[in-house]
Specification:
alpha+beta, Aminopeptidase, eight-stranded mixed beta sheet, 34% strand
Length: 176
């Protein structure tokens, strides 16, 4: 990619898939895939889907295209994954949040999750953010590995059962 800007409609990261900026009709599909995958793979309850729905609704209603993005990964028009970078409402305007990283089972192992997270980092730097925060759970081993490889640091962890299963909520940060 070199010095190409990150705001192009299509960004080819790998010959086997393409990253593009979201379209409004992608957001319900993001919610649906989170519901299907996380309930099946981790037994998460409806509270998790309420969180995902709130994130996507807030994004749709308040999206600032200069400072926020949602990327969709696809191959031949088929959805392979997604990620969002949104303003951190709890910061002074210099912080962002990485939200809703998802990679379809059929696309795992391609490096797609890492590409999506790196895309967030590049865009956050271009948008003038100085920090990215995220929330994840201890059982999401692959995602946690991706975050650590990108330079995120675990800053807080606590036991949590709000998703219907006992888990450890983790809060990670990346200083840019």
């Amino acid at each position: 990619m070199g010095d190409q800007p990150c705001d192009t409609a299509d960004i080819i990261m790998d010959p086997s898939y393409t990253l593009r900026i979201h379209r409004p009709e992608d957001l319900p599909h993001i919610v649906q895939r989170h519901e299907e995958l996380y309930s099946k793979e981790y037994s998460y309850n409806s509270h998790f889907i309420e969180i995902v729905t709130k994130v996507t609704t807030d994004f749709l209603e308040h999206h600032d295209p200069k400072r926020e993005r949602c990327w969709i990964a696809e191959r031949n028009g088929d959805f392979l994954g997604c990620v969002m970078l949104v303003k951190d409402k709890e910061s002074d305007g210099t912080g962002a949040k990485l939200r809703l990283l998802l990679v379809e089972p059929s696309a795992r192992g391609l490096g797609l999750g890492g590409d999506l997270v790196r895309q967030c980092t590049r865009f956050a730097k271009e948008a003038g953010y100085t920090k990215i925060r995220l929330w994840t759970n201890g059982e999401l081993v692959s995602a946690r590995r991706i975050y650590a490889k990108e330079g995120y640091k675990l800053v807080h962890a606590e036991e949590d059962d709000s998703l219907g299963v006992k888990s450890v909520s983790e809060y990670w940060e990346l200083t840019l």
